[in-house]
Model the fold of this input.
Amino acid sequence: MYTTIEKVILLQDIEVFKEVRVEDLAHIAAITEEITFQPQANLYEVNDSADSLYLVLDGKVRLHRNGQEISISGPQEAFGTWALFDNQPRVATATALEETLVLKISREDFYDLLSDHVRIAEALLRSLARSLRSLAERF
Done:
């Protein structure tokens, strides 16, 4: 079981949380859930409701669609990030390649947290704006 401090350290490396203060990350850490998946277990499938972000603590997760590999997420890598902001169905299946421990942040818990902590919402907006600006500069 990870401590709140360990979770904060992991969360500050997730791109969308880069602008969030450490003390505010502690609030996010408090709503995380540690879940272990066995090899070949699906965390979610294409067209499932996108309701959570995942951070790999240990193991590997393959993101794929129609037999095509999109990416593999390993320790300290997040996936499903946009599920916190967009309720569109999942566009890929996430499958554990080996026994995998993840931190899960549900959108419902996240929104409840944001309603009480405006500073987190402001930091997220700055982070998203920075990402969009970076994308626009590439084109």
Observations:
- Residues 118-138 form the longest helix (21 residues).
- The beta strands are 33-37, 42-44, 52-58, 61-65, 68-73, 78-79, 93-96, 100-106.
- Residues 129 and 135 are 10 Å apart (CA to CA).
- The radius of gyration is 15 Å.
